[in-house]
TrEMBL record, chain A:
Superkingdom classification of source: Eukaryota
Keyword Protease listed: no
Organism, as annotated: Branchiostoma lanceolatum
This protein's UniProt keywords: Chromosome partition
Name of the protein described by the UniProt record: Cytosolic iron-sulfur assembly component 2B
Function: Component of the cytosolic iron-sulfur protein assembly (CIA) complex, a multiprotein complex that mediates the incorporation of iron-sulfur cluster into extramitochondrial Fe/S proteins. As a CIA complex component and in collaboration with CIAO1 and MMS19, binds to and facilitates the assembly of most cytosolic-nuclear Fe/S proteins. As part of the mitotic spindle-associated MMXD complex it plays a role in chromosome segregation, probably by facilitating iron-sulfur cluster assembly into ERCC2/XPD.
Subunit comment: Component of the CIA complex. Component of the MMXD complex, which includes CIAO1, ERCC2, CIAO2B, MMS19 and SLC25A5. Interacts with CIAO1, ERCC2 and MMS19; the interactions are direct. Interacts with KIF4A; the interaction facilitates the transfer of Fe-S clusters to KIF4A to ensure proper localization of KIF4A to the mitotic machinery. Interacts with CCDC117; the interaction is direct.
Lineage per the UniProt record: Eukaryota, Metazoa, Chordata, Cephalochordata, Leptocardii
From TrEMBL, chain B:
Name of the coding gene: MMS19
Subunit structure: Component of the CIA complex.
Protein known as: MMS19 nucleotide excision repair protein
Domain MMS19 N-terminal: start-end pairs: 42-303
Keyword Cytoplasm among UniProt keywords: yes
Compartmental location: Cytoplasm, Cytoskeleton, Spindle; Nucleus
Biological process per Gene Ontology, one example term: iron-sulfur cluster assembly
GO cellular component, as recorded: cytosolic [4Fe-4S] assembly targeting complex; MMXD complex; nucleus
Length: 191, 1026
């Protein structure tokens, strides 16, 4: 049995991709300061490894530990698709949209809403966590980051949001070597 | 028969009794020189060969075999060969320690053309009977295989009389072979056996004995001492499997089984093997496996996790369909082909109706792979797919879905490209062309730009297929495209339309001329000569249609001589009108027009018929235009602009480079005459004005026309004689050293270097070089005038380049002279920058296209000659003066090939790290880029210097003087994570911490690199990371 057979959603719906950000003359000018904007955050997250929501999980209350257990071995759920014409990214699955990212440069605040592909997606917490960790690593420390599920798109929206907002639970989750491994796999840049 | 000479006899004894291997050389030499005959040797060995001592017999046999190997095979007489072969065959029955030497002897005999007919059969028979091959050591097994291979190569027919016995004997011999070196040989024997022998009852055994190696799983040892690669074995085995159709019933199930495994290489190998075997096996043999094959292949394509596997699967499908198609032509039955294609279509059909889902693309790829196989297959697939796509296109209203459908359809049209369209066999796409074109036309007015662009892509694809687009459709296409070019607001649509028009212009120049050209030219005229940015005639065209845009489009579609002859005069007229208007804004447009002319020349000058036309129109016109302006210095004139003149020069150069010899002589003659004597009548210019371009006191408008002289004189072939060369060179030298007008001085310098580069060796050249050197030395030493010294350095640099690239002996003297300037405070840096000029490829006077005299590998030679001196110079120079040496070294390193660089690198790296401390951003960037690439190519060198590098890179990532430096530093840092873990891990926390600054850089592009680099470093040593 190959990996693909274990994927529940083998023929997912695709959305268009945003074209590469064009470089403006201002960006090439050494003396102009470029502000961080939603598109930039979006591009940072574009590099997230392709995640497919696959495993059905009826449990409404998800904990990190449960996810970790459901991810053995992790490589089966986190896979890359290398078709150059149609690499699936979180963007093409409409998980992350630029319009759902807001940046307040002065207030040092970034807020992101993401949309799981199916309401019972068991990977929602993992995706949220990956987004959090990625931005933790990619943004200057002055920013505070909020990650939420788009309202009304997930069964256990509230629970997931609560976990993602809880600093200590996030930190504790990242202490778990197994989970850190999965998150890191999501964050490896494509080569 | 004479006995052996004493000396040889002694050596024989020494070898056999005394176990002295060195004695062999002497014996062999005696036989080789004809001093001793082989039979004499046998005779003298007689007692030893039949000795009761096994070791003695073995030694004696060994000596005989080795001597045989060392003597030329054609020296052997038939008689000798017969005796020896009988002897060896007999000895095979001997003790197991003698046997290897016997086999070695037989190997030597097997290569001999003198071996009597019939003996080969005997030898093979006795080997199969007496030798248990797999109990021998590797070299002896190889000897057996080589004997078989030799005979199969030279005496196949004789061996064929053995029939099935040979097959069985060989199967037994190779069964269980494990050594990759031997397998290489056995695979080729097995291939010949399968093809040339009646394998009949042993088919399955023969198949099993080779197929057990499939798929090849072999990784050669790191230093690869035997030169056997995995690819050799894979290909060898594949050829055996594809040797005969009798293997089909065993091989196809095996391939299917391996395809279901999870190992990438097994899948790949199975698919490649399927592609190689399909044709040999034939439709009949594949028939019963078709359904299984199709489902296996589809699975790989749908679940594609690996690009190579997907491609291999598609190639496999193409091969299968091609095989079925052959059966059609052979037996006249189309049943199985159509049946198979129908099942492919059935599997893919519903996916093609779901453009929003992922599987649409892989389905289309499967069908395209099937269609690509043959003409009938293509017809069958297109007959189903095209109507389906056209129908589905109407069903789906969303532009995004429609675009996907169009792109998929276009891909199918591209498949049809491979098939010719003739009267007897029309291209498979022809029956559908009306429908398809109608669909494409229908989206050209759509509001969605992507959809329009796909429509244009579809039309372009249709036009790419032979004569599919004909008659009214041609005009219609041209009309549509012409309209899009002028009126569509989306840049992708414009661009794709222009490409389509350009392709069309090559095939149907008349249509383009009638439908498009006139409209474009009309716009150019209506826009007026000073409407570069604004556009008064809004009603005819959209905003983007500036003159610049029209010019670019004209240049793009001028691909055919007919069109070129129509556009060039118009462009020249347009240029003249611009010049006459002498408005301020006309300058930019004039330059654009010239760029356009230059572009047309570059693109179409390959066509010889165009060259003379260009000489008569472009060269003639532009030259006169420029010179007439040059002598008229009283008015302000457009053509006085230097950058404009440079474009003129480029256009002239492009024509001159391609001139045939006869024309070159005359044009060079008249040009030189005009410039030296002021005789402009030779160029067809009627003026009494004074033209003295070489006179330093002439106005700069005149002197800068040496640009044009250079374009003509330096672009001709090496054998074209340049009149009054010495005089010309002297005047150019004077002008370059003395002219205050910088473009003039540089142009004269380049022109001079072009002449020197092609100057034939001899007294004249030597004298000129000697005088020049003296003159330059004097200027550099005495002149207090800073600018004068600058100019002298430039001349020196360009002359050095001219000499170095042709490998002239004076080159090194000039280089030394240049390096001696490095410590000069004022001009040292400029001299060092000269290394960049010397090594970079010139685009004008000294480039290959201008027929410059360029010696192979001059860069390497220059590097080898000068690196030691530079490093010495660096070490000895005072602290403040080191910079020039570093700069020169950096330039050297940028230009030499990687292999040379890697050899010379280790001592240089500390030097380079130091150069990062400098203040020149461009130098820093090039050094940093080199570090990035060295991480891949010479990791150990970088690892050794990591302690110095990382702090330096971190510093530059934070405080680099320009964004490019910071980005390059971050890129280098990121690439370093691929170095051995133990080397970089100690730096992880420090790098991650310090890069927190760079992710907050004020420039977005720097932040992007910082995010990437920091991400890599975060992953170091982290679970799930590296």
């Amino acid at each position: 049995m190959s990996d693909q057979d274990r994927l529940q959603n083998a023929n997912p719906q695709l959305y268009g991709r945003t074209s590469e950000r064009e470089v403006t003359p201002d960006e090439l000018d050494d003396d102009v300061e470029d502000k961080i904007d939603a598109r930039e955050i979006f591009d940072i997250l574009f590099w997230l490894r392709e995640l497919l929501c696959g495993k059905y999980d009826a449990a409404s209350e998800l904990t990190f530990l449960q996810i970790v257990e459901s991810l053995t071995p992790p490589a089966h759920l986190v896979r890359s698709i290398t078709d150059p014409e149609h690499p699936l990214t979180l963007e093409e699955l409409n998980v992350i949209e630029q319009s759902r990212i807001t940046v307040d440069e002065e207030g040092n605040h970034v807020s992101i809403e993401f949309t799981p592909t199916i309401p019972h997606c068991s990977m929602a917490t993992l995706i949220g966590l990956s987004i959090r960790v990625k931005l933790l690593r990619a943004l200057p420390t002055r920013f505070k980051v909020d990650v939420h599920i788009t309202p009304g798109t997930h069964q256990s929206e509230h629970a997931v949001n609560k976990q993602l907002a809880d600093k200590e639970r996030v930190a504790a989750a990242l202490e778990n070597q197994h989970l850190l491994e999965v998150v890191n796999q999501c964050l490896s840049t494509r080569n | 028969m004479a006995a052996l000479s004493g000396n040889v006899q002694e050596n024989v004894l020494e070898f056999v009794q005394g176990q002295q291997d060195s004695a062999l050389q002497n014996v062999a030499k005696a036989v080789f020189d004809g001093e001793t005959s082989l039979l004499q040797l046998v005779e003298s060995l007689g007692s030893s060969l039949i000795s009761t001592e096994v070791t003695t017999r073995a030694r004696a046999t060994q000596l005989l075999a080795e001597v045989l190997h060392r003597s030329p095979s054609n020296r052997l007489t038939e008689k000798e060969a017969e005796v020896l072969s009988a002897f060896f065959c007999d000895r095979l029955l001997d003790h197991h320690s003698v046997q290897p030497h016997v086999l070695n002897g037989l190997l030597a005999l097997s290569a001999s053309p003198r071996l009597p007919q019939g003996d080969e059969v005997k030898i093979v028979q006795v080997i199969f009977k007496e030798v248990y091959v797999q109990s021998l050591v590797q070299t002896d097994r190889r000897a057996v295989y080589n004997i078989l291979a030799n005979f199969l190569d030279s005496r196949l027919e004789a061996l064929q009389t053995l029939g099935a016995d040979f097959v069985w004997g060989f199967i037994q011999a190779m069964d269980g072979e494990k050594d990759p070196r031997n397998l290489n040989i056995t695979f080729s024997i097995a291939r010949i056996t399968a093809q040339a022998f009646p394998i009949g009852t042993f088919t399955e055994e023969l198949f099993e004995v080779v197929a057990c190696y499939f798929p090849i799983d072999f990784t050669p040892p790191a230093d690869d001492p035997h030169g056997v690669s995995r690819e050799d074995l894979v290909l060898g085995l594949r050829q055996v499997l594809a040797a005969t159709d009798k293997f089909a019933e065993f091989c196809v199930p095996m391939l299917l089984e391996k395809l279901s495994s999870d190992v990438t290489s097994a899948k790949l190998d199975s698919l490649h093997t399927l592609a190689a075997c399909a044709e040999v096996y034939g439709a009949e043999n594949l028939k019963s496996f078709l359904d299984l094959l199709l489902s296996a292949i589809s699975r790989e394509v749908y679940n594609s996790s690996h690009q190579d596997i997907e491609n291999a699967a598609l190639t496999g499908l193409t091969a299968v369909v091609a095989t079925l198609s052959h059966a059609v032509t052979e037996t006249g039955s189309v049943f199985s082909l159509h049946h198979f294609l129908d099942s492919v279509l059935k599997g893919c059909r519903h996916h093609l109706c779901e453009p929003e889902l992922k599987l649409m693309w892989p389905s289309a790829k499967l069908l395209q792979a099937a269609a690509r196989a043959s003409d009938p297959a293509c017809v069958h697939v297109l007959n189903t797919v095209v109507p389906l796509m056209v129908e589905q296109f109407q069903v789906h209203p969303l532009p995004q879905h429609r675009q996907t459908m169009l792109e998929v359809t276009t891909a199918f049209i591209h498949v049809a490209h491979t098939f010719t369209s003739g009267a007897d066999a029309p291209n498979p796409i022809i029956p559908h062309s009306d429908n398809l074109l109608t669909v494409f036309y229908s989206v050209l007015e759509a509001t969605d730009a992507g959809l329009r662009s796909s429509g244009v892509g579809g039309m372009a694809a249709m036009m790419g297929v032979g004569d599919v687009v004909q008659g009214k459709h041609l005009d219609l296409c041209a009309k549509h495209l012409g309209r899009l070019v002028l009126h569509d607001a989306d840049s992708t649509v414009q661009c794709r339309s222009t490409e389509a028009l350009a392709a069309m212009a090559t095939a149907h120049p008349d249509v383009i001329q009638a439908e498009v050209l006139s409209k474009l030219l009309e716009v150019l005229e209506n826009n007026g000569s000073n409407a570069m940015d604004t556009n008064q005639s809004e009603q005819v065209s959209a905003k983007h249609v500036t003159n610049q845009y029209v010019l670019n489009t004209l240049a793009a579609i001028s691909t055919h001589p007919t069109i070129v002859r129509c556009t060039v005069p118009k462009l020249l007229n347009h240029l003249q009108a611009l010049i006459d208007s002498s408005a301020d804004e006309a300058n930019q447009e004039a330059i654009a027009t010239l760029h356009c002319i230059h572009g047309i020349v570059e693109k179409t000058v390959i066509d010889d018929s165009n060259v003379q036309y260009f000489v008569d129109t472009i060269v003639q016109n532009l030259m006169c235009m420029a010179l007439a302006a040059a002598v008229n210095t009283s008015d302000r004139h457009l053509v006085h602009d230097t950058s404009l003149l440079e474009v003129v020069a480029n256009a002239l150069r492009a024509v001159t480079q391609r001139l045939p010899n006869s024309a070159e002589n005359s044009i060079v003659g008249t040009t030189v005459q005009a410039f030296l004597d002021g005789n402009m009548a030779a160029l067809g210019l009627n003026t009494s004005a004074n033209f003295k371009p070489f006179d330093v006191s002439s106005p700069w408008q005149q002197t800068q026309t040496v640009l044009l002289l250079s374009a003509i004189v330096c672009s001709v072939a090496q054998n074209v004689d340049i009149p009054s060369k010495s005089e010309l060179a002297k005047k150019l030298l004077m002008l370059s050293c003395a002219s205050d007008h910088e473009p003039t001085s540089l142009a004269a310098t380049k022109c001079l270097s072009g002449i020197v580069n092609k100057w034939e060796l001899g007294q004249q050249l030597e004298m000129f070089l000697q005088e020049t050197r003296g003159q330059l030395e004097e200027m550099l030493r005495k002149t207090v005038d800073e600018k004068g010294r600058y100019r002298a350095v430039t001349v020196l640099v360009w002359l050095t380049k001219a000499l170095v690239i042709r490998g002239h002996p004076s080159g090194s003297q000039f280089t030394k002279m240049l390096m001696a300037l490095f410590e000069d405070e004022a001009i040292g840096r400029r001299a060092a920058e000269g290394f960049h000029v010397i090594l970079s490829d010139s685009s004008d006077a000294l480039c290959k296209e201008s027929h410059a005299n360029i010696r192979l590998m001059y860069k390497q030679r220059f590097f080898m000659e000068n690196l030691p001196a530079l490093v010495d110079g660096f070490n000895q120079a005072d602290d403040g003066r080191k910079q020039s040496f570093l700069c020169a070294v950096s330039h050297l390193l940028t230009f030499i090939p990687r292999q040379v660089l890697l050899g010379a690198l280790p001592p240089l790296v500390p030097l380079l790290v130091q150069s990062l401390l400098g203040e020149d951003p461009s130098l820093q960037v090039s050094t940093l880029e080199m570090f990035s690439s060295l991480v891949q190519e010479a990791p150990q060198v970088i690892s050794q210097n990591i302690d110095a590098l990382i702090p330096q890179l971190l510093e530059l990532s934070k405080n680099g003087p320009s964004m490019n430096v910071r980005m390059a530093a971050l890129k280098s840092l990121g690439s370093m994570t691929s170095l051995p873990h133990a080397v970089v891990y100690p730096y992880r926390n420090r790098v991650v911490r310090e890069l927190a600054v760079a992710v907050g850089d004020k420039k977005r592009m720097v932040r992007k690199e910082a995010v990437a680099a920091r991400g890599e470093w975060f992953l170091l040593g982290s679970p799930g990371g590296k």
